[in-house]
């Protein structure tokens, strides 16, 4: 069995799916660059950031599997929660089951199909009183 991580391959699959959707990118200012894992401090709102991820093995019967928990962060400064919540709905439409991701690069012999499950959403108002933040968690099941 290989012992490499699936983290980068899962992130790439998620970002590729999200950036390919015109409705989502339209809400993010019309640019696929609104989906990122690094935000320039001068970037315009709203944007979606791929955040923390955890990975655990789920191997069974000589079949290598991974469970990857990924948190996506949506930041905006519009009045009210409507835009951020619409973006959350777009993300859920694109990533939650029965949607499937094509994961390339894990294992090296891939591609593999991954199933994603939405785990929860939290919305928060930042201390500045203007910025709104949605944290959306997914679990991705990848197998060899």
Written overview of the protein:
The protein has 144 residues and is α+β, with helices and mostly antiparallel strands. It has helices at residues 7-19, 22-27, 82-95, and strands spanning 35-36, 47-57, 65-76, 100-103, 112-125, 132-143. Strands 1-2-3-6-5-4 form a 6-stranded mixed beta sheet. It is elongated. The model has no long low-confidence stretch (mean pLDDT 92).
Summed up, what is this model?
This protein is α+β, with helices and mostly antiparallel strands and 144 residues long. It is 23% helix and 38% strand. It has a six-stranded mixed β-sheet with strand order 1-2-3-6-5-4.
CATH class value: Alpha Beta
The radius of gyration is: 16 Å
Which regions have little confidence, pLDDT < 50, spanning 5+ residues? none
**Main beta-sheet strand count, sense and barrel state:** 6 strands, mixed
Jot down its keywords.
144 residues; alpha+beta; STM4215-like; 6-stranded mixed β-sheet; 6 strands
Helix and strand layout, with pairings?
Blueprint: H1 7-19, H2 22-27, E1 35-36, E2 47-57, E3 65-76, H3 82-95, E4 100-103, E5 112-125, E6 132-143
Parallel strand pairs: 1-2
Antiparallel strand pairs: 2-3, 3-6, 4-5, 5-6
